[in-house]
Specification:
Blueprint lengths: L2 H9 L13 H8 L8 E3 L2 E3 L7 E3 L6 E3 L9 H12 L19 E3 L6 E6 L6 E6 H6 L9 E2 H21 L1 H49 L5 H48 L8 H7 E6 L3 H4 L5 E5 L8
Parallel strand pairs: 5-9
Antiparallel strand pairs: 1-4, 2-3, 6-7, 7-8, 9-10
This protein binds zinc ion (ZN).
Length: about 325
């Protein structure tokens, strides 16, 4: 039932415009953004413009007050994270006029101009086959970017073989892979974390200082030691710096959390790639679960060397396998 129909069945109240009894995207968007589904209670999600103007407004997510595990979840955290991941993914996929979305749609990039690759088709002997080529080239012509033509069957074969190969290597010695990955990310994270932590400390100290400076300026003004315009100028200056600092602090804190999360990602990745070890063909699900992006090099007849296909997985396994 759509929320409208549900309300009608419970309360007998229907919306002003009537209902078509259809789900629409904006309702789904709101639902998928509501942490109540994973058991979190989020408050202060909305506000009004001011105490006079009661127009309703969404508040930015950073300002929500979230109490985790406040009640029994309806969705698993895993599913929730998967939704968020697809949402944040580079790709929403672009269907053709006939409504076909290739599994790799939106994940392919031109190695030379960075544009997304575009799906096209040829029909040499009355048998149509799909291919990908640089999007800039197909939009703006051959002077804009050179050919990155690759047929869909060839690309699918390369990608699928790589998935199977990586999966087999991982399964062959899962523990070693996990350990190597942890070492690899820890090394990267450690270096970054020390720098970030240091900067974070400095920023927090300065933020506390500014608080004091602002109240000091205000007190001086009240005591009549400081002219009003000078006081205002000072406070303006301090507040501007404070806002800037606060943004920086929240960015830095987020960075730290991301690094911690990265170390947990490997188990999820192993689980996913194991699932696809004997995949008979590429599916949209497989592609969205495993790939960050795939970069397609120039065509051999143009560059004079074999065409390169670089597959970037969700976790950086290039340096491990
Ligand atoms: Zn290009």
């Amino acid at each position: 039932m759509t929320p409208n129909d549900y309300r009608l069945s419970k309360t007998g109240v229907t919306s002003v415009s009537g209902s078509l009894h259809l789900w629409n995207t904006s309702v789904l968007r709101t639902l998928l953004d509501n942490p109540a589904y994973i058991g979190n209670l989020a408050q202060l999600r909305t506000t009004t413009v001011s105490y006079k103007n009661h127009k309703w407004q969404r508040r930015p997510k950073e300002d929500w007050i979230v109490i985790e595990n406040a009640h029994e979840p309806i969705l698993s955290k895993e599913l929730w994270n998967k939704v968020k991941e697809v949402e944040a993914s580079v790709s929403n996929g672009k269907p053709t006029k006939r409504g076909f979305t290739h599994p790799l749609s939106g994940l392919l990039y031109c190695a030379d101009c960075g544009a997304k690759m575009r799906l096209g088709w040829n029909m040499p002997k009355d048998i149509p086959y799909f291919n990908f080529n640089c999007g800039t080239r197909s939009r703006c012509g051959s002077s804009a970017c050179f050919s990155h033509f690759i047929t869909v069957p060839a690309l699918e074969r390369i990608v699928l073989n790589d998935v199977r190969d990586k999966a087999q290597k991982i399964v062959a010695d899962e523990r070693k892979f996990r350990r190597k990955y942890m070492e690899h990310t820890a090394k990267l994270a450690d270096k970054k974390q020390t720098d970030v932590k240091r900067e974070l400390k400095r920023a927090e100290r300065r933020a506390a200082e500014l608080d004091k400076l602002i109240s000091a300026a205000f007190e001086e003004k009240v005591a009549g030691k400081l002219p009003e315009n000078v006081c205002l100028q000072l406070i303006d200056k301090y507040t501007a710096e404070q806002t800037e600092l606060k943004e920086r602090i929240s960015a830095l804190t987020q960075g730290l959390e991301e690094k911690q999360r990265a170390t947990a990602d490997v188990d999820e990745f192993i689980r996913r790639i194991k699932k696809h070890i004997n995949a008979p063909e590429l599916t949209r699900e497989l592609c969205l679960e495993l790939f960050e992006k795939i970069v397609i090099g120039g065509k051999e007849t143009v560059t004079g060397k074999p065409q390169e296909v670089h597959i970037y997985y969700k976790i950086d396994i290039g340096s491990i396998l």
